[in-house]
## 1
Amino acid sequence: MAVPADSVPIATMVHMVTIKLSSTNFLLWKSQVFPMLTAFDLLGYVNGTISAPSPTITTDSVERPNPAYTAWQTTDQKILGVLFSTLTEESMVEVVGCTTSRAAWLALENTFAPASSSRANHLRDELMSLRRGSMTVADYGRKFQNLCNNLAEIGRPVDESDKSNWFLRGLGPQFTHFADNRMSRDPIPSLRDLVNQAQQYDLFIRTMEGTPPPSAAFYAHDRHPSRSGQQSRQRGTSAGRGYRDASSGHQPSTHPGGRARSSSGSNPSRRPYTPRCQICQGQHYADKCPQYLQACGTVPSQPSAQLAEAFQASCNLSEPVSDWYVDTGASAHMTSHTSALDQFEPYSGNAPGDKSSTSSRQV
């Protein structure tokens, strides 16, 4: 049954459709137009269930205009005007020459419906095959959401569970553990939550990759240990004999008087050595010791000066020593200058001694 023309609120209907039809949004446009026409009982004009009555009628053998046709035509033209007001210039070209709302609707449907279906399939395939690749998680999430929005605009919205599954699948192998954990939850988090959580997980992974392993930091700190303990032990050992290091094969040179000197070079940055007297433990050399001078006289003799010089050289105070030497354990030594000793006794053994050579050595 035709609707009276005066009951069609054209001004209200025009503002109820907020989308202009284009070649990409027919399904979305249709989803707004159909409910509006149904609400005012006008959908029959568009889908053909309310057909046009005969333009004329015959009464008493006289043909006259049909009032029902006139009412139908008025209402149909109002609907046609509403449809035209929702079209873009691109879509208006398709309805040129259409005189009824039914004809206009068929023209629009035949033109844009197949394109919308094809576009929907294309967008859905693109969404399912989308991969993050070299994109950041934020960029990947935005592109994924835009495809979902495009599908919703043409009337093919994606199910929320499909959104979450496809998004997790496209994150890549680096997010395998993250994806397995989220997919095992019931229900699966929404797409918006997954994007935020994936960004946090990506930041955590990049932070861990930028941190050096603890073993490397320990090695860099421990590769130059202090030599103070080693040097103090070297000064405490006997330097009276040359010793070949079994591990390195290094043979230190032996100087007259049994003094061994390392072949390593001097270290100019080493701080000066503070001498310590072997007699009174004072901070001076043995030849300057008051007790020694008192026992030997006010002026040290030449052998005493040689003894102090030999002691200073044997300590190797200015050069770092990298080799270790065993203590010979000797408790007796030979010398031709008894005046330099506090206690001595003549040698009564049978081993030969070369006095001529020992007299010229520094002890």
## 2
Amino acid sequence: MSLSHASPDGLLPETPESQGRVPEVPAVAADMPRQRFPFNARKILRTGGIVLLTLSLTGALTALVVMGRAMSDLTIRVNTLDAAFRSGQIGQLTTNVSVMEESLKVLERQVATLGSLPAAVRSAADEQASLKSSVQQMQMTDSETRQSEALLQTRISALEHDVQQSSAALDEIRRQLAQKAAEPEKNRAAPEPVKPRPAVAAKKTDRSARRVPMPAAPFVLTGIERRGGQTFAVVIPRGASQISAMRLLSPGDGFMGWTLRSVEGSRAAFFTVNGREHRLQAE
């Protein structure tokens, strides 16, 4: 119900005088039906205020209790830290922090090193490629060396064959020399009658011999060889018996002051010395 239906007397506070008085009930009211009095709003507000105040006080007390417990825990922690500081644990903690800082610096240096790792990897890859190229070049050089060895082996075989032929030729020359040395002895054993020759012819022969002296070559022509479409004259210094002293001369090559001009067949060669041409026969 609204407050407009309440009577003015009902809104006024009760006083002792009003409590002592006995309300006079008109005679007509006794005959009227009983009416309901409206609610007392002031009591409701008063009761609500009391309840709200009670709740506020309860909340404040609860907050105080919680804060008290928090303060107690904080006090315990402070006391614990104080005790730890006094017992030296704080110093150990500082040491641990210093160690952790050093470890952090080491990790930072390692991270910086790892940052340069890609460049190192690229450099290693470049070096690997260079090594592969070097290995390939070495393999190519090895193959070329093997080819050179094969060619040298072929030349050595050819030289051995030539040496064998030269040895056979030398044996033949020695045999011929031995035969020539034996022939004068036979001629001495059986001398032939000497025929008289004209003195004029002998004088002419002596003069022609004096005019055209035949110098002896400082080497011996041992033979003529043909290799790869080229012709070589094989010579060896006189008195030398070692195979390493033998030389292969092609037209235009010089040896001991003598220059090879040309080759005749397989047993003779033409040399020039001091502007003159001389024909040497293979021995």
## 3
Amino acid sequence: MALKSSSLVIWILPGIEELVKKLKARNTDVYLISEGFRQMINPVASILGIQQENSFWDLMLMSSLRGVEEKLLLFNK
């Protein structure tokens, strides 16, 4: 399913919205974890009704000590 949020077109797999609704109906905490960017993840969390404090994404940091060193960190907010 394609949904539009501001200037983004977001593709959500069929059945995901229904799954999230069923989990929430059972009082199950739902988390969104992605390797994507915050700008893409927050709209998806909003569309699915997942609290932003339950959404996590990766942020790639680069350091120039001894060449290019990459560290992958998990962030939310």
